[in-house]
Amino acid sequence: MSTDLWVWLAALLTFCIYSFLYRDNPVYKAAEHLFVGVSAAYYLVIYYHNSVLPNLARPLWAAVTEGQHGNFILIIPGILGIFFFLRFFPRGGWLSRWSIAFYVGSGAGLSIPRTMLTRIIQQMQGTMVSFIPTQAWRTLLAEPTIWNGLWLMSVPLAAVGVLCTLSYFFFSRPHRGVLGVTSRIGIVFLMIGFGASFGYTVMARISLLIGRVYFLLSDWLGIIE
Amino acid sequence: MRRQVPLAICFFLGVTMAIQYFIPHRVSLVYGETIRTWYLIVFTFALVLGTGSLIRVHWARIRRRASGWWYSLIAMGGLVLTLAVGFFGGIGQEGLFMKLYNYVQVPLEGTMFSLLAFYIASAAYRAFRARTLEATLLLLAAGIVMLGRVPIGQSIWAGFPRITEWILEVPNLAAKRGIMIGVGLGMISTAVKIILGIERSWIGGGD
Amino acid sequence: MGLFERLMHIDRRIIFLCIALAVLIPFIFPLRLPTYVTRRVKDVYDRIETLTPDDPPVLISIDYDPAAMPELQPMTLAVLRHCFSKDLKVITMTLHQAGPGLALDATSEAAEEYGKVNGIDYVFLGFKPAIAMVIDQMGQDIHRAFPEDYFGTPLSEIPMIADIHTYDDISLIVTFAASAITEAWVAYANGPYQEPVAAGCTAVSATDYYPFLQTGQLFGLIGGLKGAAEYEYLIGVPGRAIIGMDAQSIAHLIIIVFVIIGNVAFFVQRRGAAGGGRRG
Question: Superkingdom of the source (chain C) (predicted)?
């Protein structure tokens, strides 16, 4: 069993949260609020040490004391940042829109070509290439097994699945006739995909519990290595 | 003017940052670097603002002695202590700041999320029903993946991991790619609407 | 009340207790089930295996919070141990605001095990907000995105990273994230700069990244605690992930049994109600 008071504190807080499983209670609420306060302060301290100091304060200080006059331009984003806090004042609140416009506009512009490349063009490329599964052919010829034969048939099947899934999300026409058939096939692919996601989600949640149990049994009680 | 100027800023930056990607000229690269450096600084203040709002809410509750105000006192107490320790004690690994992180924040956050394991089991028992063909497909896929992705599944039948791999690499890939393309088109159209000023919710109300 | 009706209305705290026991008992009485390795995890391992100490450093981005720590910390440690065992230079950083503590812990723990020195064998850059901008900026100049390391030392004064400026000076990137940060690395590092990227992610997000694997935008994927266990097995250093696999297995079986019981009870009840309706 651990003799470190910090480990005992962590174990106590763990049980405070787990008390919620029996029912909601003041101990759980107190622990929850403690978490809110500590984490908010943690983020503030990290922003200060890792972002404000190295990217703004120290370069400006170097501009004043070491003659790196090019750094004076950082006053502009500094002022834009301060404008955010004018939201709390009725008369100056409209200036905060400039700051929001800055980061909304530049973020939107930056994302357009990269999103187009990553989510659209390269994904379409991957789908089209799948219709001619040369790699799967090579694998089958090198190692002719049932599994590799199944894989050869599956590669273009995935491409068909992509098109059928996309047809399901096309709501400009009623899902009848050919579109009705493809969207039904799309639903089958979607359901299997969501089933896989659900199975993995269960795995993820159980893993979180395993982590806490491991801490209690190993770090706190010392029962396991 | 109080709405036009921000819209103009948004338009100018949006268009220039989108075009900057395609222009390898030195002026374009310097412009892009400058905007990215400024963005880092401006965005930090936006994050700080979020925390400021939290402080306002809890402080107001304490002042008014509203119902449950002692919980807000605990929140503010934790916040003030951590701030003091972090600003004056530093963020080194052996300091009190990191001790608070490792032995207060980590167990609290980790345990809160681990509660989900219990709730997902309860939800799976009560709500996961094979009422329709689609639900049955979902349930079967989930069951196979759950068995195929743990060692006991392979011990029960060596085929589980292979079928799981097939499910992930074929139907799951197809479904997720279809969703990804659709979401990507939505993201791009939203970004274009923001840049062109069609989408203005970020400006807020007032004049 | 019939058996099945009682089963349908069972107190959920009994379900909670079953799950708790399903996780607890395998820790105390381990089954030691054998781990098997999947292709996508092996791809990450094989790629790092090809690197030598003379190659440019590996960039490891530790982008998660304590909520994802049980799944991602073991795989982060496994990859760090792999890199350090091969005497590779490592740069670690984080883009998640709650990540610095975990990133610092993982980096220090692995470095200490292999006798690695900060500034010579590895560098921890710390945290920066604005994910997309930082990743994109690093493609142009890492020193502008991170003027200093986490401890406040200017990068120009750190021997290991003084001449590392862009992704061209980095062998590959491995990102460990519980959120869309993985996609940001693909979109802003792999897309424009063709930098090889591998991902470690929680099981919740793992299924979403298979399209990236097929196109080669990600060269490998370590998904969830199982993926971490596979990597620990590959490097021959068992850790928390392998130990947790027994509990994971039993918990999955229990949940599948719950789902089967729930469905059987549901269908028996439904048939009973329909039969009663016809008789009436």
Answer: Bacteria
In a domain, A138, yes or no: yes
What strand order describes the sheet that includes C172-177? C122-127, C90-94, C58-63, C172-177, C197-201, C221-223
Does residue A111 contact residue B187 with C-beta atoms inside 8 Å? yes
User: Touching check for B111 and chain C: CB below 8 Å?
Assistant: no
| Whether ipTM exceeds 0.95 | no
Whether B161 and B80 map to the same domain: the answer is no
Mean pLDDT by runs of 10 across the 207 residues of chain B is: 90 95 93 93 88 87 88 93 92 89 95 94 88 92 94 91 94 96 95 94 75
End-to-end CA distance of chain C: 20
C12–B29 C-beta distance less than 8 A: no
CA distances from A220 to A5, B103, C217 (A): 10, 12, 42
Q: pLDDT for C30-75, tens place per residue?
A: 988 888 999 999 999 999 999 999 999 999 999 999 999 999 999 9
Q: What is the residue type of B157?
A: W
Q: Check CB contact of A68 with chain C, cutoff 8 Å.
A: no
Task: Flag whether B207 is in a domain.
Answer: no
Same domain, B12 and B54: yes
Residues contacting A71, CB < 8 A, separation 6+: A59, A60, A62, A63
The CATH code of domain C39-238 reads: 3.40.50
- Tens digit of each residue's pLDDT (9 = 90 or more) over A26-62: 999 999 999 999 999 999 999 999 999 999 999 999 9
Q: Which of B89, B116, B149 corresponds to the end of one domain?
A: B89
Total structural domains in chain B?
3
Domain boundary among B39, B64, B89: B89
Between chain A and chain B, the number of residue pairs with CB atoms below 8 A apart is: 390
Let me know if residue A108 belongs to a domain. Answer: no
Residue pairs spanning B and C at CB distance below 8 A: 158
Helix ranges (H only) for C53-124 are 69-85, 99-113
Cβ <8 Å between A214 and C244:
yes
- Asked if the C-beta of B62 comes within 8 angstroms of chain A's C-beta atoms, the answer is no
Give contacts of A165 with chain B, Cβ < 8 Å. Answer: 174-175, 177-179
Measured CA to CA, the distance from residue B74 to residue A34 in angstroms comes to: 6
Tell me which residue range forms the domain holding B115.
Answer: 90-127
Across the interface, of B9, B114, B139, the residue whose CB is closest to A98 is: B9
Q: What is the C-alpha separation between A155 and A162, in angstroms, rounded?
A: 11
Query: For residues C146 and C166, what is the distance between their CA atoms, to the nearest angstrom?
Result: 12
Pairing mode, if any, of strands C122-127 and C172-177? unpaired
Q: Can you say whether the dihedral through the CA atoms of B22, B23, B26, B31 is positive or negative?
A: negative
Q: Which of B11, B87, B160, B172 has the most A C-beta neighbours within 10 Å, making it the best mutation to test the interface with A? A: B172
Instruction: Domain count for chain A, please give it.
Output: 1
* Together in a domain, B63 and B7: yes
Is the Cβ pair A165, B174 closer than 8 Å? yes
Q: Which residue has the tokens 């799944």?
A: C71
The percent of chain C in helix, strand and coil, each rounded to the nearest 5, is 60, 10, 30
Q: Which chains touch A (3 or more CB pairs under 8 A)?
A: B, C
Structure tokens at C4: 């099945």
In this structure, what are the phi and psi dihedrals at residue B201, rounded to the nearest 5 degrees? Answer: -60, -25
